[in-house]
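FAQ: What does the model actually see?

It sees only this:
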Amino acid sequence: QKPASPSPFKDDSDEEIRIRVSYTREQKLAAITYAITFTKPDKNGVMKLIIKYEAAKKLKITPTMLNKWIKGRKDVKNLNKGKRKNRQHITAQESAMEDSLYQQFLKR
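And it is asked to produce this:
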């Protein structure tokens, strides 16, 4: 199975190694625009939008990643220029436990 990485490299054993890559707001917006606006002629010569799988393959990202960006394009647009993730909505999963631990930390 091929890795979903946009830029894998090979080691001495010829096995592909995945490299985790993050993308800026501008790169995500460019990918979204490409995926939802790029057309090509079909077998009858009629211009049609390319499928998301084809767009993702051309952009060297996974179709799942592209779909998430398209579905969350409002969030992507609201990111600050050059930012990679929107982390302002992260809350504690166990807030009571974290508050208790924080209070214990302050006592020491």
